[in-house]
Amino acid sequence: MKKLFILLLPAMLGGCSYYHTVYNSVMDKMNTDTLEYQCDEQPLSVTHNSNRDEVSFLYNDKELRLKQGISASGARYSDGIYVFWSKGDTATVWRQDSIVLHNCQLQNGES
């Protein structure tokens, strides 16, 4: 019986690992919203993951993943180069100290 247990142990542990991976994936999807903005320069589709406290979006054919930071007002996300800042139904994107996407208005009525 001990030999059977020892042989089955890796399979049982592997099942636990698989369940954990699937669970995290499902939770990520449940806690993810897609926000559609119309900026002066172009449309902007932002994925907000509240589980990870991050947003992601494409800018200049590059996927950006920005972590939430401290903000006195609204929500601020940054990777050290880019900043996505939103408040209510508006958002702005900076690259270093220059605004690259102006007057972004939420299109799907979420905030």
UniProtKB/TrEMBL annotation:
Domain of life, source organism: Bacteria
All residue ranges annotated as the C-type lysozyme inhibitor domain in the record: 37-96
InterPro entries reported for this sequence: MliC (IPR018660), MliC_sf (IPR036328)
Cross-referenced Pfam families: MliC
The entry's keywords: Lipoprotein, Membrane, Palmitate, Signal
Protein name: Lysozyme inhibitor
